Amino acid sequence: MAKTLFDKVWDSHVVKRIKNGPDVLFIDRHMIHEVTSPVAFLGLKNRRISVLYPKRTFATADHNTPTKNQHLPITDPESKNQLEALEKNANEHGISYWGLGHKKNGIVHVVGPEYGITQPGATIVCGDSHTSTHGAFGAIAFGIGTSEVEMVLATQCIMQPKPKKMRITIDGKLNNGVTPKDIALFIISKLTTSGATGYFVEYHGEVFRELSMEGRMTVCNLSIEMGARGGMIAPDSKTFEYIKDREFTPKGDDLLKTKKYWGTLFTDKGAKFDKEFFFKGSEIDPMITFGTNPGMGISITKSIPKAKDVDNGKLTYIKSLDYMGYKEGESMIGKPIDYVFIGSCTNGRIEDFRAFASIVSGRKRSKNVTAWLVPGSHKVMEAIKNEGLLEIFKDAEFELREPGCSACLAMNDDKIPPGKYAVSTSNRNFEGRQGPGARTLLASPLVAAAAAITGKITDPRSLI
Predict the structure, then answer these.
(1) Helices then strands (H, E): number in the chain?
(2) Are 167 and 75 in contact (CB under 8 A)?
């Protein structure tokens, strides 16, 4: 019987099927951080049980870590308590812990692939919705809640109903200036933020095959923003080349055996999906959001749609524009901005900073723009320095910060002030996501760079 990639990975990890209920799924890799794990460990303590397979769990500090002066004591008491709890729990249970100052420290969904923790055919969970990032390697990866974090720590399994299957195919060539972030925002604008609810998505077609592994991670990262449980892309030679020789990947004979299995991870001809969508790469332009959810996105050259043209949720739509201070039918080009943020698990990799540098090189930051450049890990930060990008940023009057989630969710001091506009390469533009009253416009590193240079929304193709 023909199987999808998703079926092959899911079915091979089912420990038990519960009649008229969920599957008990074995989890290969469990990533934890300081926000969603403390209560889970407290649950273990209260039940007097330990972590079943500590070597399958990896801990890093990222969500509310400062991005300046990480060598100094943390001043925020809540952040300090959470980070100390993570370190204490990891040490007590024999779990690898990459805290502040550790050379492997960084955003959980950036460091996982960097060190070969993320592998094809694996099941990966984390108490963070953007765990879907790891699906770029042909893994089944999804976010879980705190009670489920406790369940995985205790049993290395999780109970989950098997999602339905969706395939999104995009063929053809991309237009100039279009990045993986634009592809994802385009898809979400077409499907809406609930269009993939209840599904696991496979991305298929020429456009995704041509993307780098970093680009594939960006696309899979944003799967959750259209309601999907996760997203995945079949592994290929690019995948195998990326993970080769990383710390936690198999070596020697084990690698040869594992690669045989990896080579079977593709959707069989004739396999059935519950829903399919088809798009052309030529349909996609550089994108920008104008509202308060990731589905409110348009080509940067287009005008904000009118409420009468919105199929449903007109009141919500109008409320969103009111929050953003925008009007129906307005052009996005030329709108002034105050802040630019490049970073997060969506666009905090070295490829994203290279793209940003390609626009700002030889230019100067607009004086009315405050820019936060936050690498996703220490490895990314070192690459920025080694590749000469730091000098480009300095010459253009930008400052590089230290790794962390930063202004993606504003759990540290990196908050956009009320009423200010921020062009952000992160994943969510909900009301107050980047700080109380902040107005977020999601975009690619190229669009963010163009805005940082001009002080307003600018088509990056005019600067390439």
Answers:
(1) 16, 18
(2) no
Alpha helices (H) in 94-193, listed in sequence order: 108-114, 146-155, 180-191
Please list the residues that pair with 440 across neighbouring strands. 422
d(CA 59, CA 39): 15
pLDDT at 451 over 90: yes
**What is the enclosing helix (H) or strand (E) of 378?**
helix 378-386
Write b or e for each residue in 333-345: b if 16 or more Cβ atoms lie within 10 A of its Cβ, otherwise e.
eebebbbbbbbbb
Cβ contact 107:128 at 8 Å:
no
Residues 6+ positions from 93 with CB-CB distance below 8 Å: 41, 50, 51, 54, 57, 153
Per-residue tokens: 152: 């995985």
Tallying the residues shown for the chain, one arrives at 464
The two tokens of residue 197 are 């609810």
Mention the CATH class of domain 292-462. alpha beta
The distance in angstroms from the start CA to the end CA of the chain is 49
Q: 5-162+237-257: which CATH topology? A: Aconitase; domain 3 (3.30.499)
Q: How many percent of the chain have pLDDT more than 90?
A: 95
The DSSP secondary-structure symbol of 407 reads: G
pLDDT at position 314 is 85
Q: Cite the residue boundaries of each domain of the chain with CATH code 3.40.1060.10.
A: 164-235+267-283
Task: State the sign of the Cα–Cα–Cα–Cα dihedral 351, 408, 36, 99.
Answer: positive
The pLDDT score that the predictor gives to residue 164 is 98
pTM greater than 0.85 (yes/no):
yes
| Cβ–Cβ under 8 Å, residues 61 and 105 | yes
- More confident call, 310 vs 7: 7
pLDDT in tens, 158-196: 999 999 999 999 999 999 999 999 999 999 999 999 999
Q: Where in the chain is the domain with CATH 3.30.499.10?
A: 5-162+237-257, 292-462
In this structure, whether the domain defined by 164-235+267-283 belongs to CATH 3.30.1020.10 is answered with no
Q: What pLDDT shows up at residue 241?
A: 95
The HSE-up count of residue 276 (CA atoms within 13 Å, CB side) is 9
DSSP 8-state class, residue 338: -
Token digits of residue 340: 């630019």
Q: What is the pLDDT of residues 254-313, one digit of tens each?
A: 988 999 999 999 999 999 999 999 999 999 999 999 999 999 999 999 999 998 888 777
Q: What is the mean pLDDT of residues 230-253?
A: 96
